[in-house]
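Annex B. Sample input.
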Amino acid sequence: STNETFFFRTAQDWDFFEQAVKEKIAAAGKPGGVRQIRLLSAACSEGCEPYSMAIKLCDLIADMKRWSISIWAVDIDTKVLDQSRAGVYDEYDLQATPKSIRAKYFTPEADIPKDGAARYALRDDVKRLVKFQRHDLREAFPMKQFDIIFCRNVLIYFDEKVKQKCVQNLYDALSPGGHLVIGHAESLMKIDLPLEFVRHAVYRKKG
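Annex B, continued. Sample output.
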């Protein structure tokens, strides 16, 4: 577990995420539309990725209270899950975060630690959108029907057998038509599942 992470890592993935959410919003406004979105950050590390999802939703959805929003974040490392729940980050974690987002969603901590590095606390209402749970990617997910799953920069560390098992579990957790986002150095070429290639590092569950 390398735990390498920061907010809004890999801009192309967040461009895709934003477009996908906008499409959900548009579909919800049509007759019979459902105001619901389910997201999963697999191998979430210190929480930058799922909290990035939550911030994006807050920026894109004007009437959050009218929506059923579920963001799950899982990791095998209980230490980083505890850090995630605390929601406190440093300059490295926020290196790709626009100043406007920093000002809107983070508060500088008054107490400066011994290392002299500034810390920033995420807003409580954003933290409450994300549910953290320990999970091994080799095991089936207890939660299902996700619209978008991020599982980036972890599959590359597995052999083909374990990778197939992990992707099968991710596939099973997706809703029909849901999207899986992997790392840009990763590929699903040898994975035998009905996943449609959408764009680099993005796949769609057929059905």
